[in-house]
Amino acid sequence: MTAISCDQHKYGLAPKGVSVIMFKTKLMRQCCYTLVSDWPGGMYATTSACGSKAGAPVSGAWYSMMFHGRDGFVTKALIITNALNEIVKAFRESPELSELEVIGDPKTVVVAFKYKKQFPKNIYYMQGAMSKKGWHISGIQSPPALHISVTHGIAAKV
């Protein structure tokens, strides 16, 4: 593993705009710096292409972390992990889902799946049908498949 991200808007119940990425080495982190030398205001360097971050989302993330605390987030992580395991089990054991297969061996929060035989069925039609039922599933291209990020909202439906 070379890096890990923390999407606080998904799993930390915080506003968007405060996600972070942590690198295994300082050398890898250096690849994310943006340096603009021809800006009329002089040399400009920042740790991201977006520049500075607004204070409101950062404050919201801090509040969320303080409100839920370590125990709250551990509990939420267990709920999400249990939901992920139930979803994977359903794909692998339910006769209704026998045409689908899970890609890989999900251990964290994303389950990707595809048709065992792609044609004549188009997996992306399923994406639209699931959306009408309130499931927000994303498409991926190679292979043609769908994936779902198991969040608190998804875990509540499982």
Account of the 3D structure:
It is globular, with a radius of gyration of 20 Å. It has a single domain (3-157), classed as Aspartate Aminotransferase, domain 1 (Alpha-Beta Complex). The chain contains 5 helices and 8 strands. It has 158 residues and is an alpha+beta fold. The relative contact order is 0.12. The two termini are 30 Å apart.
Keywords:
Aspartate Aminotransferase, domain 1; alpha+beta; 41% helix; 8 strands; 158 residues; four-stranded antiparallel beta sheet
Entry summary:
The protein is of the alpha+beta class and 158 residues long. It has helices spanning 8-11, 26-30, 55-93, 123-132, 152-157; strands spanning 3-6, 20-23, 34-36, 44-46, 100-102, 110-115, 138-140, 145-149.
